[in-house]
């Protein structure tokens, strides 16, 4: 039997950074501080790091300086506010290349990022339009690596048995359950919330709006444990 390594993820989303010095900037500083203090092995941002794509260079330099404080991998999923449209903030590839340990999920149909040195594999599908019927977890892979912690990250509304209040960005119970994820990191809803125990799936809450993130412990013997982290 393969014993996977014990790892800790700080999962966050919906910082909605808009301009230099705003509350979103303060939230990013708080998130980085929390990742350092908690000895996280990975920072996972499940969409809407930025509030829009009209980001100036001074703000980008601030974000890069914050990321440089972390000696751990950072994985970003573009959300609906900072989606991958032409001219997206994440299309500034030369700028982001200068951020060490940074991984941005770019593939429109979803992509898998393996971090073998952490024993973690992450799948995510970025939002690539401002309009349309978007399904954040469609196009998932059909197999997982039993030797790694398998994480999915998605930005949208979890839809259970009730009729949805919103026309798009739906994430269904079936989409979460049909693959053997160890953890599903969700963004788009600003409050800390568990939506599934098997597999374990949580919204982290917005640091900017709710002052929380999710601290996720992956234990090779006892499984996945999630707590709200106050920022």
* Proportion of helical residues: 10-25%
CATH superfamily, please? Metallo-dependent phosphatases
Query: Main beta sheet, described?
Result: 6 strands, mixed
Determine the strand fraction and express it as a percent band: 25-35%
Distance between the termini: 38 Å
Number of helices: 4
> What Rg do the Cα atoms give?
16 Å
Uncertain stretches of 5 or more adjacent residues: none
Count structural domains.
1
Q: Going across the biggest sheet, name each strand in turn.
A: 4-3-2-1-13-14
CATH architectural name: 4-Layer Sandwich
Order of helices and strands: EHEHEHEEEEEEHEEEEE
For the structure shown, list the relevant keywords.
231 residues; alpha/beta; Purple Acid Phosphatase, chain A, domain 2; six-stranded mixed beta sheet; 4 helices; globular
List the helices and strands and how they pair.
Elements: E1 7-12, H1 23-37, E2 42-45, H2 57-68, E3 74-76, H3 93-97, E4 102-104, E5 111-115, E6 120-124, E7 149-155, E8 157-159, E9 170-172, H4 173-177, E10 183-187, E11 192-197, E12 200-204, E13 212-219, E14 223-230
Parallel strand pairs: 1-2, 2-3, 3-4, 6-7, 7-10, 8-9, 10-12
Antiparallel strand pairs: 1-13, 5-6, 11-12, 13-14
